[in-house]
Design brief:
The protein folds into 4 domains: 213 residues, Neurolysin, domain 3, CATH 1.10.1370; 65 residues, no CATH class; 165 residues, Neurolysin, domain 3; 234 residues, Orthogonal Bundle (Neurolysin, domain 3). The protein is α+β, with helices and mostly antiparallel strands. α11 crosses α16 and α15 packs across α16. It is 54% helix and 7% strand.
């Protein structure tokens, strides 16, 4: 999940943009005849010790994690929803003619309590969940969905918004204000405001079902991931594995009650080195199948019927709203605009990527044959034999890089790069509240010495954390009542913990992910906008990965590597010979990497361009989709349907293509730095002022052209992946 950016429901309007669901007025007050503001006040008075009901007594308003307990969430959500209902009613009841301030801005600045509790709750359900939070989530989801629909389907409120929208040309609004007005109006029309009463009721039901199924999908996947373990009790079966991988497996075994044995799981830090180095083909096959069969084992955690029903319900909802498919509905708000445009892009890249992958198969099969193997290359062999080829061709494997990329040193490299580009500095604090003992916290200062943000890092894999890597916020930057709210940003990753007295050592790819996620963090921390709904990463889904893709490029630059890529024992800077091997091998296996990603992308689009409402046979549909695209048997999609959490329990439905779309922008943007100097201050300032600071306050492609002076081309991406025809 490299690069996945998750955003909690941080504003009342963000809530209406993101959700949509069931019945009305779910406040849980026990008396639905009471006014919402009275309901909210009663809940607050009856829960005086709830930390959400008073300002956090902490530095810069960091959430008071030590005081927040599971029992605090439901009352806080209920009070927040009731307060928001009262705020919306006040807008409706205002006797003054609707204008930008008393309608659009009033909505934008509403929902403070909902924002406060949601930002904590949804961060923790991803990063440090437990049974209590998962149970609460199932109750909260329909409540928030109902609150969203209560706004979007309220005709009196919509008429006020429409009145402001219809007079927009005479209001003298600036660019950000105009965009906020248009986005607010479109959130209503896309939320069903123009439907008749019967269809509004139907829409609520569809939204409610989809929301509940999405939660169930995610819970099942987490259970499946945590349930699988490859237990090894014969040391001979560890043949080929590096010692640090063996040490980590021993630690995992001890924590799971298998003392004296070794345990490997389907988490990336565990399965990837096993598939890459384990000599036992039988065990590689076992763990590989354990990974690709998650959610597809015909047990209590099976996801096939859930995802098929979700796809059908999304299609029904899209057509109710007047769109051909769910993908057409989603992409209208993306820079790609239509699924046809996305398919066109994929079809430009797919042939070259597939041809490269097929060539990679041939080379590996030749190696298998030369070693006397009597089998054909399979999916569980790819990592193992591609690594052998890489070693033979480049005298390089990623284990050679681990000693130079300790987590601590790589963090120094990230901070060094940000300082050289934007002048920011960091100061670690160990005395600030955190939700888990493993979290680290830094103050972030701008180049003028002013405090700019709080940055948290949560780096180690654990069972309470879902897989992948992402950035999120506990508070976004925005300005209200003369106060510039400082953002609180978090990066969450899944690196192996330190073991046997050594630091956490990263592969080259894992270190690259750290740079990537910090690119998202910079997008949040350097934000300088008026409105919270436009802050930082509040941009179209197919644009949000762009700043993080750019950030990856600095890690591979010799000047940057010399600053941080130092042997964790000797302090020796990574040898130039090894750097040259890294650069030479950077295009290796790009056929595989591009094809497995694009296969998942095409699978996502196929699920979300269905036009009928009957749930498909998930296994059959997936097989037909992969066959149609010509995917070779040796490669599985990066995410098969039953564990494709991006699209069935995250925000990427019909949008997984976004990484490739953003990578085109990223590769093209870094060309500007290569042309002018990788730390050229004029280029860096242009990137900060036009991209990072602007968030979603302006049309993103216009911002890109202001930075680059032209539209992005595809050639830099193909060249960076070695896919451009010579």
């Amino acid at each position: 999940m490299k690069g996945l950016t998750l955003k909690p429901l941080v504003t009342a309007m963000a809530l209406t943009f993101a959700l949509g669901a069931c019945s009305t007025s779910t406040t849980g007050s026990g008396d639905t005849n009471l006014a919402p503001n009275v309901v909210a006040q009663q809940i607050i008075e009856n829960n005086a010790g709830n930390p959400f009901f008073k300002p956090y007594d902490t530095y810069l308003g960091i959430p008071d994690f030590d005081k927040i307990k599971p029992e605090h969430y439901l009352p806080a959500f209920k009070a927040g929803i009731a307060q928001h209902q009262a705020e919306m009613q006040a807008i409706i009841d205002n006797p003054e003619a609707p204008n930008f301030a008393n309608t659009i801005e009033a909505m934008e600045f509403s929902g403070e309590l909902t924002s406060k509790v949601a930002s904590v709750f949804y961060n923790l359900t991803g990063a440090d969940t437990n049974d209590a939070l998962q149970t609460i989530s199932k109750e909260v989801s329909p409540m928030l969905s109902s609150a969203s629909d209560d706004v979007l389907l309220n005709d009196k409120l919509f008429q006020k918004v429409k009145a402001v929208y219809d007079s927009r040309d005479s209001l003298g609004l600036n660019t950000a204000q105009s965009k906020l007005l248009v986005d607010t109006y479109k959130s209503f029309t896309r939320g069903g405001a123009n439907l008749n009463d019967a269809d509004k009721t139907k829409l609520r039901g569809l939204n409610d079902q989809i929301g509940k199924l999405s939660l169930e999908f995610g819970d099942n996947l987490l259970a499946e991931t945590n349930a699988f373990e490859l237990v090894i009790d014969n040391k001979a079966n560890l043949s080929g594995l590096p010692q640090d991988v063996i040490n980590t497996a021993a630690d995992t075994a001890a924590k799971r009650g298998h003392e004296g044995k070794w345990v490997f799981t389907t988490s990336r830090p565990s399965i990837t080195p096993f598939l890459t180095y384990a000599d036992s083909r039988e065990l590689r096959e076992k763990i590989y199948n354990g990974y690709i069969m998650r959610g597809n084992n015909d047990n209590a955690n099976d996801n096939k019927q859930i995802l098929a029903k979700m796809a059908a319900l999304r299609a029904e909802r899209a057509q109710l709203m007047g769109y051909k498919t769910h993908a057409h509905f989603v992409l209208e708000e993306r820079t790609a605009k239509t699924p046809e445009n996305v398919y066109e892009l994929l079809n430009k890249v797919w042939p070259a990527a597939l041809a490269q992958a097929e060539a990679e198969v041939d080379v590996m099969q030749e190696l298998i044959d030369s070693e006397g193997g009597d089998f054909k290359l399979a999916g569980w062999d790819w990592w193992y034999y591609s690594d052998k080829i890489r070693v033979a061709k480049y005298s390089f494997n990623e284990q050679q890089t681990r000693p130079y990329f300790s987590l601590e040193n790589t963090l120094k490299g990230v901070f060094y790069t940000a300082n050289r580009l934007f002048g920011i500095t960091v100061k670690e604090r160990t005395d600030l509240p955190k939700y888990n003992d493993e979290v680290r916290t830094w103050e972030v200062y701008d180049k003028d010495g002013s405090l700019m943000a709080i940055f948290m890092g949560d780096y180690y894999v654990r069972d309470s954390k879902r897989g992948g890597a992402w950035m999120n916020s506990y508070r976004q930057q925005y300005k209200m009542n003369g106060v510039d709210s400082k953002p609180i940003i978090v990066n969450v990753l899944n690196y192996p913990r330190p073991s046997a007295g050594e630091p956490s050592l990263l592969t080259f790819d894992e270190a690259s992910t750290l740079f990537h996620e910090f690119g998202h963090a910079l997008h949040g921390m350097l934000s300088d906008v008026q409105y919270r709904s436009q802050a930082g990463t509040s941009v179209p889904r197919d644009y949000v990965e762009f700043p993080s893709q750019v950030m990856e490029n600095w890690m591979t630059q010799p000047e940057v590597l010399a600053q941080f890529a130092k042997h964790y024992k000797t302090g020796e800077v990574i040898p130039q010979e090894l750097v040259k091997k890294i650069q030479a091998a950077s295009k290796f296996n790009q056929g595989f990497a591009t094809v497995e990603y694009m296969a998942a992308t095409k699978l996502d689009l196929d699920w979300h361009t269905v036009t009928d409402f009957t749930p498909k046979d998930a296994a059959k549909f997936e097989a037909e989709s992969l066959n149609k695209m010509g995917l070779i048997n040796e490669i599985a999609p990066r995410y098969r349907s039953t564990y494709f959490s991006h699209i069935f329990s995250g925000g990427y439905s019909a949008g997984y293509y976004s990484y490739l779309w953003s990578d085109i922008l990223g590769a093209d943007a870094f060309e500007a730095f290569k042309e002018n100097g990788i730390f050229d201050q004029t280029t860096a300032e242009a990137f900060r002022n036009n991209i990072l600071s602007q968030g979603g306050s302006e049309d993103p492609m216009l911002l890109y052209k202001q930075f680059r002076g032209k539209e992005a081309g595809i050639d830099p991406l193909l060249r960076s992946r070695g896919l451009l025809a010579k």
